[in-house]
Amino acid sequence: QTLENTPALVHAGPFANIAHGNSSILADQIGIKSSDFLITEAGFGADIGCEKFFNIKCRYSGLRPDAAVVVTTVRALKLHTGKYRVVPGKPLPEKMVAENPDDVYEGASNLRKQIENMLKHGVSPVVGVNHFSSDFQSETDAIFQVAKEMGVRCALASHWAEGGAGATDLARAVVEAANEPTDFKFLYELNQPIKVKIETIAKEIYGAGEVTYDSKATSQIKQYETNGFGNLPICMAKTHLSLTADPTI
Length: 249
Prior knowledge:
By secondary structure, the protein is mainly alpha-helical. It has helices at residues 25-34, 45-61, 74-79, 94-97, 101-107, 109-119, 137-150, 159-162, 168-178, 194-204, 215-226, and strands at 68-72, 125-130, 153-157.
């Protein structure tokens, strides 16, 4: 349980860039029978953890999401501009922690894509701004502006400082989104060829222009399909440079 006695099930949720990135179906089934709302983590990012939650986990669990929360921070969006180099164990660059809503707005291009990826699955996204005392009002305002332009809900969550009381606005936004009609859909069908499924994820979720395969990969894919594994969903790995390897974008 949390410090405020909220039940929490932590069961089998490995990192998404090496596995499916989701807690177990069993944990969700227990949780959804025990409370009015179940929040389950699909980590990290709507380009990988969330995509696998929708297209792998939801297929096997039979559960359908009513809403989805994408969490962001001012610092993350500043980092996504590509202007700053953050080194673990060292202070953040001075310019990065200075007030700069333009940086936040520019770096939100990644956030926009994550929102798009949720919308592709017919699920209502809610942007949760994880607020820290070092954030400036103008910077959080920039995130709310991005959400407004995307036509999605946005809420400030100050649970870092205030605990559960600081997340009530986010909770209300999630309840509103969950009460809306949801047109949930999978990104691809299981009976499609493996290469078609791979290319669908790469182009629709990651924005790839094309997909190329070396001879070994092509041979392995053919072998999988010959052996009867062609109708499985795709669990795709990625580098940290998920949407582009070009640092200027």
